[in-house]
């Protein structure tokens, strides 16, 4: 009896899963596999909290797949290098003729997939990759001259123009596989699946859902009650005004198409007029796509390179004490410290604050953005290479469509604008609990005026001075580039 293999990666869902649907449609039995590569996770700086969510999700997925008569094997391997041989042996063991999965656009993943394809093809096993991570597949949204967009707004316009009927029609869960087709060894895996083992360090992720119903309900609740006000509220970190869906989108527990379908169902007018909260939210989904298209077209980004070559000459400073103060939320800038506490304690950080702390690390502490990029991956529940790299390069002014280097966030004015009453800061920094209203952003000035002392660090750098220094470093790098080009 021949069978199909479904290889799960960043697509941990049964609904709107093209690879799964294709495997089931073949009419054969289906075996599912997840290759858990702890060494690779280490190299990719996977956060222990995200590892925990993956393992919890796999347990849930196994139950969902069992209802479709599909057993799920979770194989713990070291690195990606071991994957091709392992998959081949699995195929040979179960008479598998076709392997299905979704494209992943990161460089190491692409190299791994090419090796798998090569090895399987030698045994006449077909390797079928489907595009399921994006609504519009990379390579389809191009400028009139056939190039990739470097700027978001025209990308968004072209992306919207490229939508088809299919973009709003996510696939449901496929029908169950006919039990009569299943071989004895597969039946045994279905009835007595081996324990899921994971040697990678894990941190409790129970605050985040692992089952479909809760995730879909969260999408529906957001669309029904928060999407309309998203434009006005999304930048206020003290409000629960964003969807909180990023961990699920990052691991493919939810697809971008499912999000799009829900939005079009309830907010079609806003989207057609390109106004209002729902359209702003859709734009965030398009940012996610933009960064995926970007890494697919520029594999060098996966090697740690800056998008703008000249910014490689910026003389970043390496000061361990400053880096550690940032990591531990001890900078003396309350908005930065509160945000870093939010990250440490929950694994998630509000988008506005990601921009503020990323700007602070690169433009106030003058530390290489790659240090921050890594720290985020090591701690985020929604760690996602493309979005994280894109966000960091934007904030550090080294990326495509980046914040120009001469526009530098002032952390205190950002705080006063987006946390005007200091609510967010007091919620995460108990040492500032007694500092009233907006004074929470300048606690030492308030304490001095009132003859009080507070147990909170003084600012570790002076924003005004560091701003000048940052401008100097960027201008130096620009001049060096000019000199190189004219030499
Ligand atoms: C320095 C920096 C690092 C970041 N790192 C990550 C990361 O590792 N993983 C990640 O998913 N997002 C990252 N982002 C983007 C963004 O901050 C998060 O996606 C967002 O805060 C998640 O919260 P939410 O689900 O409530 O978002 P919502 O506001 O509800 O947005 C809906 C979805 O759109 C996508 N999205 C929103 N904003 C962005 C954006 N700016 N870029 C790309 N996609 C976006 C996310 O998938 C998000 O879940 C980063 C941003 C910055 C500035």
Automatic annotation (TrEMBL):
> InterPro entries this protein is in?
Crypto/Photolyase_FAD-like_sf (IPR036134), Crypto/Photolyase_N_sf (IPR036155), Cryptochr/Photolyase_FAD-bd (IPR005101), Cryptochrome/DNA_photolyase_1 (IPR002081), DNA_photolyase_1_CS_C (IPR018394), DNA_photolyase_N (IPR006050), Rossmann-like_a/b/a_fold (IPR014729)
Q: Which Pfam families match?
A: DNA_photolyase, FAD_binding_7
This protein's UniProt keywords: Chromophore, FAD, Flavoprotein, Lyase
Q: Does the keyword Kinase apply?
A: no
What does the record give as EC number?
4.1.99.3
Asked if Lyase is a keyword of the record, the answer is: yes
- The segment(s) forming the Photolyase/cryptochrome alpha/beta domain are 2-135
Q: One GO MF term, please?
A: deoxyribodipyrimidine photo-lyase activity
Q: Which cofactor does it need?
A: (6R)-5,10-methylene-5,6,7,8-tetrahydrofolate; FAD
Q: Which NCBIfam families match?
A: PRK10674.1
Q: Which family does it belong to?
A: Belongs to the DNA photolyase class-1 family. Belongs to the DNA photolyase family.
Q: What is this protein called?
A: Deoxyribodipyrimidine photo-lyase
Q: Origin organism of this chain?
A: Agarivorans aestuarii
As recorded in Swiss-Prot or TrEMBL, the protein's gene is named phrB
